[in-house]
């Protein structure tokens, strides 16, 4: 069966708090996982002394995460985003990627336009 | 000197007279009485007016720079602590009282509501001290600092004067002195120094924003409390700054027999209470003052002592910087910060093994499985029991 690296919701109403877990894909969300890799607090805490951006705390055992990815565990989409932040996964929807693609398309269109004008 | 008789004040009226009562003296002469007050209350009112026009007259124009509590005056309305200073003749006293009243009148004219509360008073006090040939008014004794005549246990405690607060803020923020140094120099506890600096900063911030500040209120309250003045070159000690905090481990009584031949010091006694307990001289807030006294006992001259103290302070600063650097390095090693558009993600590396073999250890990260929350249960203490 497929192993997943996913989030399990704990915490109270309006105050979500997640465990980052490794579990069988078909088991229930909050069932006992194979391993708890860490936690994710999605509620941003205000920056200390009001300087800079608010921050979100993530605690994670990166070594174990690498191991589980190595043996074929598949991150869920939110986990993919988090893992790609610390370079454990290739970003799925990277803004830079999209911008690069757009730039390439624009360049290609320009070339086409130039070719067409030369052909005239 | 005759003994102080202060009890009679207990019979002074408790409530302020209403306007109708105030005109009672005049009403008395009239033919018709509209008041339906029973006869026995009239005597009390008579007494009240006798007090208001007699010994209570001094309170109409309170003495500047004094708390003006009832207990500071005797039954004839004379300031008890000024008795020694005066010759004791009634006429002279009356003349002086009038003088005082005049001064007060001046003060009232001069002041506008926006003046920082203590300053005008202090100037006045200094003026009295300098201009008069007589010795200055002595400081208020504990007997004088009883605001409630019925509560003889309650004594007003001194508060920091506005100048002293300004001086503390100036020294810490403008001159960059450490809280420890300022505390030792001015005789104010370190926590209080910190609080003064924070509150002063807040006040200045409010001033900058143009928010109204309750000066009149502060003036009124501070006028009723004794305050520690600021004397730049001979600071007045505000409070005891080097009190030994009570450690939990020392709260029990221990009977610990020791053989006479054994060299048993305070350090050893501390260890009897707790193996980790430091000796008293290392647990007091100002350890450097203890060290200073030790050097003095060793017979070191002042220049040498100052040099040694400077060295010690420099070393302190160095070690603090090193600690801060280490903390930052550790944070950088363990924490990875990723900036996104809205917020910063802080990844902290942890060990999965911290949950222990059973997977239920409290040191482990994350919500535990199979351990229900107790927070909805009856009788759970929800207020924090200790500060992290």
Describe the structure.
Chain A: InterPro entries: Ribosomal_bS16 (IPR000307), Ribosomal_bS16_CS (IPR020592), Ribosomal_bS16_dom_sf (IPR023803). The complex is a heterodimer of chains A (120) and B (388). Chain A is of the alpha+beta class and 120 residues long. Chain A has helices at 62-70, 77-85, 95-119; strands spanning 3-12, 15-24, 35-40, 55-60, 74-75. Helix content of chain A is 36%, strand content 28%. A five-stranded mixed sheet of chain A has the order 4-3-2-1-5. Chain B is mainly alpha-helical and 388 residues long. Chain B contains 13 helices and four strands. Chain B has helices spanning 19-22, 24-29, 39-53, 90-110, 118-131, 162-174, 179-186, 190-209, 215-223, 266-273, 280-283, 287-298, 302-334; strands at 159-160, 227-228, 335-339, 344-349. The two termini of chain B are 58 Å apart. In chain B, 10% of the residues are buried. Mean pLDDT of chain B is 79; it is low at 7-28 and 87-132.
């Amino acid at each position: 069966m497929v192993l997943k690296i996913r989030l399990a919701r704990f915490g109270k109403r309006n105050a979500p708090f997640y465990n980052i877990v490794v579990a069988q894909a078909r088991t229930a969300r909050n069932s006992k996982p194979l391993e708890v890799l860490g936690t994710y607090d999605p509620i941003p805490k205000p920056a200390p002394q009001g300087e800079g951006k608010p921050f979100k705390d993530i605690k994670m055992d990166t070594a174990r995460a690498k191991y589980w990815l190595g043996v074929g565990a598949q991150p869920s989409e939110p986990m993919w985003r988090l893992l790609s932040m610390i370079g454990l996964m290739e970003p799925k929807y990277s803004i830079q990627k999209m911008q690069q693609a757009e730039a390439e398309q624009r360049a290609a269109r320009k070339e086409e336009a130039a070719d067409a004008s030369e052909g005239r | 000197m005759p003994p102080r008789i202060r009890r009679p004040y207990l019979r002074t009226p408790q409530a302020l007279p209403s306007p109708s009562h105030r005109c009672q003296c005049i009403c008395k002469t009239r033919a018709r009485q509209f008041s339906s007050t029973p006869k026995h209350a009239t005597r009390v009112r008579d007494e009240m007016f006798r007090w208001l026009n007699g010994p209570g007259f001094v309170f109409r124009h309170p003495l500047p720079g004094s708390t003006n509590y009832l207990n500071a005056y005797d039954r004839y309305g004379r300031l008890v602590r000024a008795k020694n200073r005066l010759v004791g003749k009634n006429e002279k006293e009356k003349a002086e009282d009038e003088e005082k009243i005049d001064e007060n009148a001046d003060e009232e004219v001069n002041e506008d509501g926006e003046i920082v509360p203590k300053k005008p008073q202090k100037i006045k006090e200094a003026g009295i001290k300098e201009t008069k040939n007589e010795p200055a008014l002595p400081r208020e004794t504990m007997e004088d600092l009883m605001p409630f005549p019925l509560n003889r246990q309650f004594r007003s405690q001194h508060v920091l004067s506005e100048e002293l607060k300004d001086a503390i803020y100036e020294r810490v923020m403008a001159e960059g002195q450490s809280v420890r140094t300022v505390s030792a120099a001015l005789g104010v506890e370190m926590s209080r120094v910190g609080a003064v600096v924070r509150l002063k900063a807040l006040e200045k911030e409010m001033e900058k924003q143009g928010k109204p500040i309750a000066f009149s209120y502060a003036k009124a309250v501070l006028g009723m409390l004794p305050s520690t003045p600021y004397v730049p070159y001979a600071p007045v000690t505000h409070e005891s700054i080097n009190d030994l905090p009570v450690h939990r481990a020392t709260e029990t009584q221990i009977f610990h027999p020791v053989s006479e031949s054994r060299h048993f010091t305070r350090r050893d006694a501390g260890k009897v209470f707790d193996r980790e307990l430091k000796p008293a001289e290392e647990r007091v807030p100002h350890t450097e003052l203890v060290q200073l006294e030790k050097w003095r006992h060793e017979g070191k001259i002042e220049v040498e002592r100052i040099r040694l103290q400077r060295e010690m302070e420099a070393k302190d600063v160095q070690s603090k910087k090193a600690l801060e650097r280490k903390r930052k390095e550790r944070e950088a090693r363990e924490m990875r910060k990723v900036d996104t558009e809205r917020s910063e993600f802080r990844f902290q590396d942890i060990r999965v093994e911290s949950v222990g073999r059973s997977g239920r250890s409290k040191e482990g990260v994350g919500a535990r499985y199979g351990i229900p929350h107790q927070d909805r249960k009856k009788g759970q203490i929800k207020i924090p029991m200790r500060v992290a």
